[in-house]
Write a structure and sequence with these properties.
alpha/beta; 2 domains; CoA-Trfase_III_dom3_sf; 13 strands; 3-stranded antiparallel beta sheet; 16% strand; 17 helices
Length: 409
């Protein structure tokens, strides 16, 4: 790193979250150099440790106890196993929180209060702590006490009303996204919120409570679709693989498969029309600009679909890329990792693992020139660093009281 420290070097994070939204946030913080201490239930740990198969294979090809889902969101962290439901365990966590900069949790609203681990209690012992709560519906409002999960939020938050094939076509109907996008967006927004709070603390010296809601983040991320409704009064509907506001911007069938054509402006549209041998479609008054193409979408797309079926997918991709028209194939995930650009960017990383020998991980997309992301540790085994962490914090005696360290000899 040329003598430079990681962006969050020296920041200690107490991670009381599990599954995806909270751990996604803390993995981002860990990638940025924070020391993230993952607190897990003894014997079971994070729920996602059991969300398999698939499981990580050892060097003999046998399943380990580490589920792929868990591996996806817990690298660069250390694990300590503590039962916070016991008075001694809760007391240990309070002592740890007093020595941390950030705490991230995703218990139900009020769920940590009975253990004395809620924000008001922790603030009394560490006023500089940034305490981030991730819940389904936030800390306030009529639904605040209810549990919230990504799938249900995708439905009630509107995403499934605009995702999937049109209702009037075969296969139409509500469809969730292929990954838990609500959890992931919430984890990303939580990361931003923590970084902002850390920066503000440099001025005030004080921490604060961050209230992150899956529903809030989900509705916010609908972006232009929200504004389509807010400016027109008409709720957007499912449009399959077409774009609500841009034409042509969709999947086309070629003679041997499918490709995406994503024309983003009138210049690209003219280049596209020339490439497919129909320059007249670029100057036709019904299609000359995007507003006209939106009004006359049905007729234009019918013409384009017939043309696109006349050549092979890769022929079209080569011809369109040559003239700067955004386009590409529809890959499965195996094909993604065979893509030359993906290989060049080294998105598939391999890390040493204490049980399996090595473990794969997906690289962070953050690319710093001066302080590149370091892949320091594979996702930890349950309680792997308990003794190490308590020794560093000078909390061995509290660890013995909590029953997670052996009695002193």
């Amino acid at each position: 790193m040329n003598g430079r420290s990681a962006p969050l070097a020296g920041i200690r994070v107490l991670d009381l979250s599990r599954v995806l939204a909270g751990p996604w946030c803390t993995q981002n913080l860990a990638d940025l150099g924070a020391d993230v201490i993952k607190v897990e239930r003894p014997g079971k740990g994070d729920d996602t440790r059991g969300w398999g198969p698939p499981y990580l294979k050892d060097q003999d090809g046998n399943d380990t106890s580490e589920a792929a889902y868990y591996l996806s969101t817990n690298r660069n962290k250390r694990s300590i196993a503590v039962d916070i439901a016991t008075p001694e365990g809760a007391a240990l966590i309070r002592e740890m929180a007093a020595k941390c900069d950030v705490l991230v949790e995703n218990f139900k609203v009020g769920g940590l209060k009975k253990y004395g681990l809620d924000y008001d209690a922790i603030k009394e012992i560490n006023p500089a702590l940034i305490y981030c709560s991730v819940t389904g519906f936030g800390q306030t409002g009529p639904m605040a006490p209810l549990p919230g999960y990504d799938f249900m939020i995708q439905g009630m938050g509107g995403l499934m009303s605009i995702t999937g094939e049109r209702d009037d076509l075969p296969g139409g109907g509500p469809q969730k996204a292929g990954v838990a996008v609500t959890d992931l967006f919430t984890g990303m927004y939580a990361t931003v919120a923590v970084l902002g709070a850390l920066y503000e603390r440099n001025r005030s010296g004080l921490g604060q409570h961050i209230d992150m809601s899956l529903l809030d983040c989900h509705v916010t991320m609908l972006a232009n679709q929200n504004l389509n409704y807010m400016t027109s009064g008409v709720a957007p509907k499912r449009a399959g693989n077409a774009h609500q506001n841009v034409v042509p911007y969709q999947v086309f069938a070629a003679s041997d498969g499918h490709l995406i054509v994503a024309v983003g402006n009138d210049g690209q549209y003219a280049a596209y029309c020339n490439a497919i041998g129909r320059p007249d479609l670029a100057t036709h008054p019904d299609y000359v600009n995007n507003s006209q193409r939106l009004k006359n979408r049905v007729a234009l797309i019918a013409e384009l679909e017939a043309i696109m079926k006349t050549r092979a997918r890769d022929d079209w991709i080569g011809a369109l890329q040559k003239v700067g028209v955004p386009c590409g194939p529809i890959n499965n995930i195996a094909q993604v990792f065979e893509n030359e650009q993906v290989k060049h960017r080294e998105i598939w990383k391999t890390m040493p693992h204490p049980v399996a020998g090595t473990a794969p991980t997906t690289a962070s997309p953050i690319r710093y020139s001066g302080t590149p992301i370091e892949y320091r540790m594979a996702p930890p085994l349950l309680g792997q660093h308990t003794e190490e962490i308590l020794g560093e914090l000078g909390l061995e005696e509290s660890g013995r009281k909590a029953g997670i360290l052996p009695a002193a000899r």
